[in-house]
Design a protein that fits this description.
With 147 residues, this protein is mainly α. The protein has four helices and three strands; from the N terminus they run βββαααα.
Amino acid sequence: MTERTAGKWILPQPEGKEYVSVPQLSRTVPFGYKKDEENKGWLLPIPLELDALEEAKKYLKQYSYRQVAAWITTATGRQLSHAGLKNRIEHEQSNRRKSSTYRLLAQRYEEALRKAEEYEKRIGTEGSYFESNHFRDISSSFRTSDI
């Protein structure tokens, strides 16, 4: 029997999350961000706090908001109340639901437009809506925007 070697394999390394700056929309600076001194109106991410917040979401299945908020405070050195933690988690969930709803609506509208265009081609409508400048403007802005 001949011995075969598999060579050296490098397992894929986990990629760290890349956090981006966000605009400041209210007076309050959310947990996990700090004011950008160079660009007024922008918030810089603090990876340690954002990673701790992701870990805290897992702990909320087993522990209370007060206990998890106390853990975050000791882990990061930045105070976060249980009410602040709850508001932050609920706000993220709300945004996630809105985002998925808008994506679903966009898919449905795109499908409806495609079906309407097929129908107009089938019946041979002169001066079709899909040949108008209005439709082209809407269509180009829809396809270039990130949803």
